[in-house]
Amino acid sequence: MSSHTLRQSVPALLVGTFFIGLFVILFSPYALRETSLFVYFMIIALVATVLSGSAILHHRGMRRYIYLLISAGNVCFIAYLVGHRFTTAMPIDMMLFIQNFFYLIMALIVITQSIEIRTLKLRTFDVFALLSFLIVGALHIFFYTKNNGQYVTNLNGFEEQMVLISLYMVLGFLYLNRIVTSGQGFRVMLLIGILGFTTASIINELQLFTGIGHELLHLLQVISILIISISYLFDESTEDVLAHDSVFDYVIYSTIVMLYMLASDRLLGTSIIDSMIANAVLLLLIRQFVVAKQNALISHRLHTVNTDLEVAVTTKAHELELREQQYRSLFAYHAEPIFLFDLDGEVLSVNEAGSSVLGHDTETLIGSNILDIIEQTDRSAYTNVLRDLTNGRPQTLDVNVVTEDGSARVWQLMNIPMIIDGEVEGIYAIVKDITQMIVQQEQIMYQANHDSLTGLHNRYALQEQIERLIADGRSFTLMFSDLDGFKEINDQFGHHMGDQLLQHIGKRLRSALLPNEYAGRLGGDEFIVVAEHNDDEILVERLRRLVYRPPYFMAGNLVEIHASIGIVRYPEHGTTLKHLLSNADLAMYKAKDKGRDETVIFAPALRVDKEERKLLMEGLDMALEKGEISLYLQPQVDASTKAIIGAEALMRWQRDGKFIPPSEFIPIAEETGHIHDLGRWMIHETFQLMYAFEQGDIDLPKLSVNLSVRQLFDEHLIDYLTTLFERFPIEPSRLNFELTETVAAHQSDRVLNRILELKALGIKLSIDDFGTGYSSLAYLVRYPIDELKIPREFTMQLEENREYQTVTATIVAMARQLGMALVAEGVETEYQETFLRRIGCNSMQGYRYAKPMPLDEFVIYYMKQNA
Predict the structure, then answer these.
(1) Residue 325, Cβ density class (10 Å: 0-12 exposed, 13-18 middle, ≥19 buried)
(2) How does pLDDT run across 403-416, given as a tens digit for each residue?
(3) How far apart are CA 110 and CA 116, in angstroms?
């Protein structure tokens, strides 16, 4: 069982022991009572001796000495029990000696415990000693007068002195347990045990109890012995409380006390005066030892304090010297400039970094004023800082300074008061050059609010500005523009050329704007212009004239660019930023649907168009998988013979039984990227159809198919075509790819290389809608083009517009001179056919001959025409 568990069981152990003894006294047969009690008392005493003996092994120093005394007392008590039981074997004088010797041991335990506690002050001892002495004297007189002198006969000096010491112990413990937290349980157990034993012994001597009363007193004594012996369970420390004191001093002292008590009991008389003298001498003896121990303790403490003080002073001096060296090193060699100046700004000291950064030597700076290097605009603020530093609190201020070489810098001055004897005598200024940091912060702020490519406001800065205008309730116009044909430029010339174009547009926008107008780039080729006025017509005309319509000359190429513009007005077309941008986006897409270089002002009806557009975009995702895309063919005929000389493959989309015009879904397919999949499907179907015609009875000389810009610059196009030729071995010259004039007109090496690769495969090339896009005709000479197609826009104007007749005749003449074939699109009337034949164009395509038709209808039509 652990000491902690045993400690918890102590109350039950003591109560159980007492009641067992009481049971033996009350219920044992009279003839066996003394024997039973003797055995019981001996068992308890032996157990107590074993417990106190084990405590000797568990403790050291004064604790071991105390438990040695307790063990000696237990042995004396056992001897007393044996002598009392066998009176004939032991003389009565020996019995008294053992009893008195036991009392001496109890007294030494009490005294030793009292003076061991260093917190027991001498003045407190004197008060307790005087009170105990008076109480014992009063009891002595009381019993003497009450018992007619019989007190002297029955009560020897040991009992009286034990009463004295026990009272002293009670008073001392009342003080000790109030101020000492360590070891209270141990001392309380000793106090209870010794007082219990002493009280039982004195009562027995005074009253001369016999019979059961005498045996009950012995039971209290043996229980007290047990309490004293198990007190070590409550000892919180196995070390000596006064580790510096010698146990030998206590042994000598104990011997002197024991000899005195024996001598006073034998040599002095037993009168009241003699007893009081003996008690006083005993208290003085105890006091003298307390004084000696306290003087030794004070001496030891003084020696320790002096030693510690000497060490502390030496250490402090060394630390001060070390700190001074550290300060000097910190001040002199700190990487950042440090100035020390008085409250007027006069420099008292400066480190090497400070003189270096200003370009002066230290001697020149000392005596100068810190305000002289600060720019005039910041001197007043820094003067206020110098004045406010007298309150003792550091302050930091950013100032502009000028160095010796004239360069302007920004310093962050951390001003720290130098306080001496509670007064601010000077100021330390630690300098941090934050010039580069401010530049970086400005760059970060600029980058956070500006587009890195164009230098215009970015999306977030625009949103903040627009929201600020909305919060202020100021009306404004928002113009949303998207470049027309920008994807083709990226595909033809590469993204680096597209980025250059956006940079040039950004420069033109900045120069074209008025002070109450500002522009930003949302991303890609989308720009926003916000104007704090409602003159949107003037704004659009100015931007088209200065920004969008003038051509751009880049990398040796003349590039024309246009923009589709959507316009909204606040608050007419929306009261939140989200609604305004959404409505401007709708208006811009409506402008794109109308063609190039168009402007549309938002109207509520555009939202219906947006929903339809959304449905088309969603439908394109699955149109091929659902089989909604089909191939239509429109014949090309020789107007003189009406023979079919070719056909153009066209794409048609039928959704839910309704045909969607190519003019609606093709732009969406190009915007969303679906044009890539649709274009590959179209080429595959064309190859498969030509192969089927060649294997059958249809000898179609030519089949034309449109090739988008994205397809032309697909890096896998040539590999894909090679694979199709291997799978469908058709005659390459029967396959004709129609290119937009936008692609052909840009004389880039990339375009030329791709056209030459197509020609190397044997494929013929046409320019679709020739004359509608670019004015430059140089590409006709540079590129190996096989055919020009007169656009439907020209054909439809031949009857009403003589200028179109002239242009068309010029195109025919030019094609003949260059050896190119011609096909006129959109022929619907006899007049158009007659005019075209007269100027030399016999190949025609249009509703006058046949509409685009499904494959099976085309085969029937072909058979009839060539029957």
Answers:
(1) exposed
(2) 766 677 777 777 77
(3) 10
